[in-house]
Amino acid sequence: MESILEVKNLTYIYSAGTPFEHKALDDVSFHLHRGEFVGIIGHTGSGKSTLMQQLNGLLKPTSGTVLLDGKDIWSDKALTRQARFRVGLVFQYPEYQLFEETVFKDIAFGPKNMGLSPEEIDRRVREAAGFVGLTEEQLEVSPFDLSGGQKRRVAIAGVIAMEPEVLILDEPTAGLDPVGRSEILGNIEAYRKAKNATIMMVSHSMEDVARLTERLLVMNGSRLAMDAPPAEVFTHAEELVAMGLNIPQVTQVFLALKKRGLDVKNVYTIDQAVAELNRLRGGASHA
Amino acid sequence: MLKDITLGQYFPGNSVIHRLDPRTKLILLVVYMVALFVASGWVSYGVMLLFLLTVIKISTIPGKAIVRGMKPLVMILIFTGVLNLFFTKEGTVLVDFWIITITTGGLERALFMMARILMLITGTFLLTYTTSPISLTDGLESLMGPLKAVKVPVHELSMMMCIALRFIPTLIEETDKIMSAQKARGADFESGKLIERAKALIPILVPLFISAFRRADELATAMECRCYQGGEGRTKMKQLHYTRIDFAAFGVVTLVVAAIVVLKRFGL
Ligand SMILES: Nc1ncnc2c1ncn2[C@@H]1O[C@H](COP(=O)(O)OP(=O)(O)OP(=O)(O)O)[C@@H](O)[C@H]1O
Ligand SMILES: [Mg+2]
Questions:
Q1: How many domains does chain B divide into?
Q2: Co-location of B64 and B12 in the same domain
Q3: How high is the pLDDT of residue B268?
Q4: Are residues B6 and B111 in the same domain?
Q5: What does pLDDT average to over chain B?
Q6: pLDDT tens, position by position, B175-201
Q7: pTM score, two decimals?
Q8: Does B122 lie in the same domain as B11?
Q9: Which end of chain B is more exposed for a tag (fewer CB within 10 A), N or C?
Q10: CA distance B8 to B139
Q11: Does any domain span residue B139?
C-alpha cells in the first residue's frame, strides 16, 4: 500500500526547560497508508492526544520528523499550513468548538479558511452534512439548538468538509448512546470508502477498534508499544492488561474456553465468534 | 503555550510559612510593603533582602519557580530602570554621549527602584505561592468582616473571588483546547491586520463564553442543591485560629520594621 504519512523518531516534551517538564512522546515511529483504518489505544495519559496533534502540525516535535508524502511538514511554512488541511483533526468532545449562527456556516469555517470558491464551499458543506446524516433543514438552524449527538456530527462534518486525506479522530464516540455510536462510526467508515481516505481513531472501546480497524497502534507510557493488526495485538492479552488496557469481551470468553481445554481459535469480533462456535458445533456433530 | 503563564500559582507544601494563618500573611505582607517604601538606604534594603531570602528559604518554594514567575514582569522592570537611569540628573556624570547622560545618581536610583519592585513582587508571590486560594479568600473575608457593619456583602465578594480564582486555570486550559481545535480547521490568529485579528478571535470567544456560562450555571445549580444561600448563618468546617507561629511571625516582622525605622534615623 502507498504510504501517505510517516512519523520518524518523534519525541515531544511539554513545558521543556521548566520544573514542569513532561515527556509525552518518546521516540515514536510508524507509517500510515492511503485508505487505511488505524486505531490507537492506550491508557489515559499515554500520549495519544499529543501524538495526534503532531500529525497536522499543531504541536512541533521536540525532535524527530513528520513526513507528509515524504516531505517534512515543518520544512517550510506553506507545507505546515497544507498539513492542517490535508490532515483533518477532530478533537475529543468537538461539539464545544461550534461558534457560528447556523450549522451551515459552522461547517463552512474550514473550507472558507482554505480559500475555496463559494460554490465549492457550498458543495463541500452539503456533502459533509450528508456523510454525517444531517438534513437540509438542520443546516439552517443554530448549532446551539441541536442535541449533543447532533452537535458532535456538525463538528465532525466541519472537519470532513475540508476533505482531508487523513482524518484523525480523538474518541469520536465518547459519551454517546449505542445507536449514536454505531451511526457515527458508520459515517466515518463511509467517508473513508468514498474518498479512499486514511482514518486514524483513538478509542477506548476494544470492541469498536477490533471490528473496524485493520491495524492497531498501542501507546504505553509515551512509547509506541505495538503496531500490528488487531488479531495479533489481542493475542497479547496479559501484556495489554499490564498496560492498563483490556481486550474485547468475546476474546476474553474464548481465551477462558481455551484454558479449559476447548480447541478454539482466538477471536476478537462477534462475527468471528459465531463462525468459530458454528465450526465447533459442526465438528462435534460429525464426531 | 498559555498554560505556562502561571502568575502566582499555589505550591502545596507544609513549611512554617504555609501553615501561618492567611490573615497573618495578608497583614504582614502589607506591613512588609510599607516597610519597603519607608526603607531608603542600601543598608535597610540589605536587611529587607536578608529577611525576604530567609522567608523564601523557610517556605521551601524552589527559587526557579520564583524566577519563572517574574518573566512576564521583566518589561516593567526594564522600563522603570531605563526611565530612572536617563532622567535622573544627580551626582557626577559617568557617560555623556549625544543626548544620553548617565549620572551616578541616576544609576543608583535605577538600581534602587528595580530592587524595590523586585522585592515587592517577590513578597506578593510568596503569599500566593504558599497560600491556597481557598484559605486566601477565607483570610480576606475574615479581615474584611468589620465592613459588614456598613452593609458591604463581604461573604459574597469573597465567594466570588474564590470561584474566580478556582476557574482561572480551567478557563486557560479550555482556551488552549478551543484554539487548537479552530487552528485544526485552518483558523489563523497570527497574521493579518488588527481588524482581521480581532475577527479571528470570534471562533475562540464564542465557545469560551458559552462554556463559561454553562459552567457557571452548573455550579450555581450544584451549590443550590447543597442548600447554599449566602453567608447568613453559615459556619465553617475549618475555623481560622492564630497559633504560636503566627505570634512568632508578628514578632519577627516587628523587629525587622523596628530595624528599618532605626536605620532610617541614621540615613542608612
Ligand atoms: N498542555 C499540556 N501541558 C503539559 N502536559 C500535558 C499537556 N497536555 C497533556 N499533558 C501531559 O502529557 C501526557 C499525555 O497526555 P495526552 O493528552 O496525550 O494523553 P492521552 O493518551 O490522550 O490520554 P486520554 O486517554 O486521557 O485522553 C499526560 O501525562 C498529560 O498530563
Ligand atoms: Mg486524549
A1: 2
A2: yes
A3: 73
A4: yes
A5: 85
A6: 999 999 999 998 888 777 788 888 888
A7: 0.77
A8: yes
A9: N
A10: 17
A11: no
- B35 within a domain of the structure (yes/no): yes
Residues A23, B74: Cα–Cα separation, whole Å: 29
Residue from A182, A203, A192, A278 nearest A248 by CA: A203
CB contact at 8 A, A198 and A167:
yes
A115-141 pLDDT, tens digit per residue, is 999 999 999 999 999 999 999 999 999
Ligand 1 close to Cβ of residue A86 (< 6 A): no
User: Does ligand 1 have an atom closer than 6 angstroms to the CB of A82?
Assistant: no
Helix (H, G, I), strand (E, B) or coil at A138: helix
Please give the distance, rounded to the nearest whole angstrom, from the Cα atom of residue A89 to the centre of ligand 1. 16
Q: Is the pLDDT of residue B3 over 70?
A: no
Report yes or no: A98 at the B interface, CB cutoff 8 Å. Answer: yes
Neighbour order of strands in the sheet with A3-14: A22-33, A3-14, A63-68, A71-72
According to DSSP, the β-strands at A198-202 and A223-228 are unpaired
B4 and A53 within 8 Å at the Cβ level: the answer is no
**Residue with the nearest Cα to atom 2 of ligand 1?**
A14
Q: Residues B14, B106: one domain?
A: yes
Same domain flag for B20 and B92 = yes
**A143 vs B: CB within 8 A:** no
| Predicted pLDDT of residue A287 | 41
**Test the B interface: residue of A21, A77, A82, A97 with most B CBs within 10 Å:** A97
| Torsion angle in degrees (nearest 10) through CA of A255, A261, A265, A268 | -20
The per-residue pLDDT for range B67-117, each reduced to its tens digit, is 877 877 888 888 888 888 887 777 777 777 777 777 788 888 888 888 888
Domain extent, residue B182, equals 153-237
Does A158 sit within 8 Å of B185, measured CB to CB? yes
Under-70 pLDDT residues of chain A: 17-19, 283-287
**Please, where are the H alpha helices in B90-193?**
104-130, 133-143, 154-184
Q: With 70 as the cut, is the pLDDT of residue B28 above it?
A: yes
Q: Which of B64, B180, B206 sits opposite A99 (nearest CB)?
A: B206
ipTM confidence: 0.86
Contacts of B4 in chain A (CB under 8 A): 15, 18
